[in-house]
Design brief:
Low-confidence stretches: none
Number of strands: 6
Number of helices: 8
Helix content: 25-40%
Order of helices and strands: EEHEEHEHHHHHEH
Structural class: alpha+beta
Shape: globular
Strand content: 15-25%
Radius of gyration: 17 Å
Largest sheet: 4 strands, antiparallel
Mean pLDDT: 88
């Protein structure tokens, strides 16, 4: 059984159709690349899997483990996002909350979805940041997003996405802001996640 099955997906904003008749399936542990020129709808398609396109109208089906995401109520979607399906966004400054430290934001995900205590979540947060190659992870966990470099913010976003060991990880150009050495480390980390179907510190 496929983990994700997208059938005849059509996404519209008012009268503009931006994604039309998209079909693909992803098996557990499989890596799948959606390739196309800029503006072809790759990000919109990715965001559709978590129903994150504001004011969009969807047609077709997006089946995750056999259940249609497009028909799920919003509370069920909130439980799904970050736990079973996570996303690494291309621009972390728009995804991270500027009012909270990166450590607090990652720990919040762990406490919400994994039921960890604040102390356990803080410890796991530092481990996650270390795994993604952030130097001095304990100190960086106390930093606000604007206090980190672009590459460090992206790594923090990757750590947050990996926190709950999601079954499906969506990556929207996740290494754009990283230097070549860190790009290799992150891609190796994502390959390890895909191969093991789980990721533990």
């Amino acid at each position: 059984m496929s983990l994700l099955d997208v059938q005849n997906l059509r996404v519209s904003f008012d009268d503009a159709v931006v994604v039309n008749d998209v079909n693909f399936s992803i098996m557990p542990g499989e890596k799948f690349a959606l390739v196309g020129e800029s503006g072809s709808g790759k990000t919109v398609t990715s965001l559709s899997i978590l129903r994150l396109n504001q004011d969009a109208r969807y047609e077709g089906k997006i089946l995750f483990e056999g259940r249609d995401i497009l028909s799920r109520p919003e509370p069920a979607m909130r439980a799904l996002r970050g736990k079973d399906v996570a996303m690494i966004f291309q621009e972390p400054m728009t995804a991270l909350n500027p009012l909270f430290t990166v450590g607090n934001q990652i720990a919040e995900v762990l406490m919400l979805h994994e039921g960890l205590s604040a102390k356990a979540a803080a410890r796991r947060t530092v481990e996650l940041l270390d795994k993604t190659g952030i130097p001095e992870p304990a100190r960086r966990a106390l930093a606000f997003p604007h206090q980190l470099s672009g590459g460090q913010r992206q790594r923090a976003m990757i750590a947050m996405a990996l926190a709950c060991r999601p079954k499906l990880l969506i990556a929207d150009e996740p290494t754009t802001a990283l230097d070549v050495t860190i790009q290799v480390q992150i891609l190796e980390l994502l390959n390890d996640l895909s191969a093991k179907k789980t990721w533990r510190c």
